[in-house]
Specification:
With 448 residues, this protein is an alpha/beta fold. 55% of the residues lie in helices and 8% in strands. The strands form two sheets. A six-stranded parallel β-sheet has the order 6-5-4-7-8-9, sandwiched between helices. Helix 17 links the parallel strand 7 and strand 8. Helix 4 runs antiparallel to helix 5 and helix 4 runs parallel beside helix 8. The protein starts with a strand and ends in an 11-residue tail after the last helix.
C-alpha cells in the first residue's frame, strides 16, 4: 500500500489506485443528491418521487454525456463500434450530461403531470454543483484545471445569489436557462483554450447548451402564465361558522361538563386544532368518536342551521372566478357529505369542481395530504395551485405542499399568528382574491 504515490493519486494498493478525481466525483454526486432532495421537499414532493427522478436523470446523464462524446469523436468510434460501450476511456461530455438530464426530466414530468420547468430548476443547480465539485479532483492532473474550477465557482455564485432569489418578473425555467448558458460558456472557453485535456475540442455541445438555454429563456418569458387551481378551506374561509362552532361545543359542554367551564379562552382555542383533537383534549373522560357524532348531529339539526351564512363577498367572488375559467375546489376537515350539505344550503355548491372531506385523505393539516390528494383527484399537478385558508394550519399545509398560500384574516386575533406562518399573500376581505390572482408570478410557495 502506498499513499500519495503521485499528485493525482490518494492511495495505491497493488494495481488498484484511488484517484482524487474519483473521490471528488463521488462527493459531488452525494452533495448534488442532497441539494436536489431538499429542493423537491420544498416543492411538496415525496422522497420516492425524488428518487425516481434522480434514477432517471442519472440514466439521462450517462446516456446524454456519452452520446454527445461519441458523436463528437465519431471518427474514432466508427472504426471500432464496441468502443462506444467501453466507458473506461472516460469519455463524457459535460454539456451532453446536462442536455441528457433535461430530456430525462421531460419524459418523467410529462407522464406524472409535473411542471417541467420547475422540476428542471430543482435539478439543474444540484447537477452543476456535482459537476463542479468533481472537477476539483482533476486539478492535480491538469495544471490549467484550476481555471475551470474558478469559473464553475463563479457560475454557482451567479445561480444561487443572482438568479435563485425571487424578484419581480422571474419565471420558472430562468434558473435552468441561465445554468445552461453559463455551463455552455465555461465549456466553450475550456474547449477553445484546451484547459481540460479530458474534454473534446469541439464547440458543438457547448454551443447547443447555450442555444437551448437562450431558447428556453425566450420561450418562458413569452408564454402566458397558466391559471392556477384554487383550493379553499371551508369553515371560517367560505362559511362564517364561528358562532355555529361555538354553539356546537357549548352543546357538548352543557351535556358533559358545565357551560361555566366553556370560557372565552377555550372558545378561541377550539378553532386552532382538528375537531377530534379538541374533543379529546376538552373531554378526556369521554369517547371521542361518540362526541364527534353528537357534535355532527347537532350541526345537522335545525337549531344550528339559521346561525350560518357565507362570509362577505364570497358568493360574488366565487362566481367571478368561475366565470373567469378557474378550477375551484375545497379541502376541508369536515366530512364531504357535511360540507356538501352546507354548500347547497349556502347556494354556492355550483362553483366547485371538487370537495375533499377529511375521510378522503390520510393526514389532517398541517400535513399536505389533503391538498395533494385533491390535485390527484382533479388529475392535475400541484405545481400551479393556490390554497386559501383562515388558520395557521391552513398556511402550514399549503407551504408543506409547496403551493401558493393565501391567509384570509377573518379575526384580528389571528393576524400575528397567520403572518408568522409566512403565507405568500394575506387578504383582509374575500373580494381581494381576484387581484391577488392577477399577479404575473408562478403559483407555488417559492413564487416561480
Amino acid at each position: 500500500m502506498s499513499f500519495f504515490p503521485d499528485p493525482s493519486t490518494i492511495v495505491s494498493i497493488g494495481g488498484v489506485s484511488l484517484k482524487w478525481s474519483l473521490l471528488t466525483t463521488v462527493l459531488g454526486c452525494i452533495l448534488g443528491f442532497l441539494m436536489i432532495s431538499r429542493n423537491f421537499r420544498k416543492n411538496g414532493y415525496k422522497q420516492t418521487t425524488t428518487d425516481d427522478l434522480l434514477i432517471l436523470s442519472g440514466a439521462g446523464c450517462i446516456i446524454g454525456g456519452r452520446a454527445v462524446w461519441v458523436v463528437e469523436n465519431w471518427h474514432s468510434y466508427s472504426l471500432y463500434a464496441w468502443g462506444i460501450l467501453e466507458f473506461s476511456d472516460g469519455g463524457f461530455d459535460y454539456a451532453g450530461i446536462l442536455l441528457g438530464i433535461l430530456v430525462a426530466v421531460g419524459c418523467y414530468t410529462f407522464t406524472h403531470r409535473m411542471s417541467y420547468r420547475r422540476t428542471c430548476d430543482a435539478i439543474l443547480p444540484g447537477a452543476i454543483t456535482a459537476i463542479a465539485f468533481s472537477r476539483i479532483g482533476k486539478i492535480p492532473e491538469a495544471e490549467n484545471m484550476w481555471m475551470i474550477v474558478a469559473m464553475d465557482a463563479v457560475v454557482l455564485l451567479i445561480l444561487y445569489f443572482g438568479v435563485r432569489p425571487f424578484h419581480e418578473g422571474k419565471r420558472r425555467g430562468d434558473m435552468t436557462s441561465v445554468a445552461l448558458m453559463l455551463a455552455g460558456i465555461v465549456q466553450l472557453i475550456s474547449c477553445t483554450f484546451h484547459l481540460d485535456p479530458s474534454t473534446n475540442s469541439s464547440v458543438i455541445a457547448p454551443s447547443l447548451a447555450m442555444l437551448s438555454g437562450l431558447g428556453m429563456y425566450l420561450a418562458t418569458h413569452s408564454l402566458p402564465i397558466v391559471k392556477p387551481v384554487v383550493l379553499f378551506d371551508f369553515d371560517g374561509t367560505l362559511m362564517d361558522s364561528e358562532y355555529l362552532v361555538i354553539n356546537g361545543f357549548a352543546y357538548l359542554f352543557k351535556k358533559h361538563r358545565t357551560l361555566e367551564e366553556f370560557t372565552r379562552e377555550i372558545q378561541r382555542e377550539v378553532f386552532l386544532h382538528p375537531l377530534r383533537e379538541e374533543l379529546a383534549r376538552l373531554f378526556p373522560e369521554e369517547n371521542t368518536e361518540v362526541l364527534a357524532r353528537e357534535y355532527r348531529n347537532y350541526m345537522k339539526g335545525i337549531q344550528g342551521r339559521h346561525l350560518v351564512e357565507t362570509l362577505p363577498h364570497v358568493r360574488e367572488t366565487l362566481k367571478q372566478l368561475k366565470d373567469s375559467g378557474y378550477v375551484l375546489g375545497i379541502v376541508t376537515g369536515r366530512y364531504t357529505d357535511s360540507c356538501m350539505m352546507w354548500l347547497e344550503d349556502l347556494l354556492i355548491d355550483q362553483y366547485f369542481d371538487i370537495v375533499a372531506g377529511t375521510e378522503t385523505y390520510r393526514h389532517t393539516k398541517p400535513s399536505p395530504d389533503g391538498i395533494l390528494h385533491t390535485c390527484e383527484m382533479l388529475k392535475v399537478g400541484h405545481d400551479s395551485v393556490v390554497y386559501v385558508g383562515d388558520g395557521v394550519k391552513d398556511v402550514q399545509a399549503g407551504r408543506n405542499a409547496g403551493v401558493y398560500t393565501v391567509a384570509f384574516v377573518t379575526n384580528e386575533d389571528k393576524r400575528n399568528a397567520l403572518e408568522k406562518a409566512s403565507p405568500n399573500a394575506v387578504m383582509n376581505s374575500f373580494d381581494e382574491l381576484p387581484e391577488i390572482l392577477s399577479k404575473q408570478n408562478a403559483w407555488s410557495a417559492d413564487l416561480y
